[in-house]
Write a structure and sequence with these properties.
The chain is mainly α. The protein contains six helices and no strands.
């Protein structure tokens, strides 16, 4: 069964592992990983703490004309935000708002910092060592 947002715990732990290994910093700006990203003052920390101000990608993309029947990849989400620049809900860091967009971007940052796909990185870091043999990151191929 899908664990849905419980996966955010794995994402956060993977980010903190990469911080511990010196591959990234909590204070790194999102522009370090995605230079074309149009929103300033968003760091790895603000993404992790759900304080980025970014709207939930599902709502923003639908309002921006995305076909709901087309599955959006993490890269699609990133490119949509770069291209369409939906308005922030509030200035980054000023308040909490649960948004899946934050963790989509963190998954992409994990890929940039680790040099591996998000699925492969989580498998190597958690699932294999912990003998979580029936746990995996869902992909379109699945």
């Amino acid at each position: 069964f899908h664990i849905a947002s419980t996966s955010k715990t794995f994402t956060a732990a993977a980010v903190l592992y990469l911080v511990d290994k010196g591959k990234l910093s909590l204070t790194d700006s999102i522009q370090k990983f995605f230079p074309g990203f149009p929103y300033k003052n968003i760091s790895v920390r603000t993404l992790l703490s759900q304080r980025s101000g970014l709207p939930n990608y599902m709502n923003a993309m639908e309002e921006g004309g995305w076909n709901r029947k087309q599955i959006a990849s993490n890269t699609d989400v990133l490119n949509f935000f770069i291209t369409h620049q939906p308005k922030l809900y509030y200035p980054s860091g000023s308040r909490f708002n649960y948004s899946n967009t934050n963790f989509v971007l963190l998954a992409l940052i994990i890929e940039k910092a680790s040099g591996k796909s998000y699925a492969s990185f989580l498998k190597e870091l958690f699932f294999t060592p912990l003998q979580m043999n029936d746990t995996y990151v869902y992909t379109h191929a699945d």
